[in-house]
Amino acid sequence: xxxxxTPKPAVVALLAALVGLLLMSTxxxxxxxxxxxxxxxxxxxxxxxxxxxxxTVTAEALDxxxxxxxxxxxxxxxxxxxxxxxxxxxxxxxxxxGAALWAVFVPVKVADLRSVVVMSRSVAPGxxxxxxxxxxxxxxxxTLSMGYLSSIDExxxxxxxxxxxxxxxxxxxxxxxxxLIKRGDLITLVGRSGGLEVRAxxxxxxxxxxxxxxxxxNPSSRRVVQGVVRxxxxxxxxx
Length: 239
What we know:
four-stranded antiparallel sheet; five-stranded mixed beta barrel; 3 domains; 239 residues; alpha+beta; SH3 type barrels
């Protein structure tokens, strides 16, 4: 029957010393690795400064295999996609005397829940919108690239330019422009150039809402020009 040899004390001491050195080496290596949480926090701070205070900003987890040298300076941040709304990509880098020692992209999610106006039932374009056709719902406005309405009163009495499905958020571009001037209305033509302003009576040749361009006629000269509707009786024209 064989007996297992007992390691000599000198051998045991040597093994213990080697393990200790290995652990110390690992600890020193970990101390020289940049913290993933510091990188994520830098990305979150950058986005937080760019979005409304009501938004929630969350950086996604980084690959746990990532090993970057610890940065002795504050981390630099910039947006790789500054036009983003709900999803950002932030470039976090370590720089020394202007030179980038390393850089990594950090995906950041933004959520901003607010009450927005939603269509309860469909209505044909051109038909007046009543309050019964609308409701308020919580939506993530960071994903509403076409904008949104926050008050039902903003839409009541107006009409749609295009169909909007029930349950869909009502966007400003879906609403028809409120007519301020009707074809045939007598209006005031205002021409400005520097500090000079000239006013004359004119006639609208088309319907128009605020900010829209319409053709107008100067009755005395019969000249037709394009003007921008400013109010229910005023159209700006060039001189």
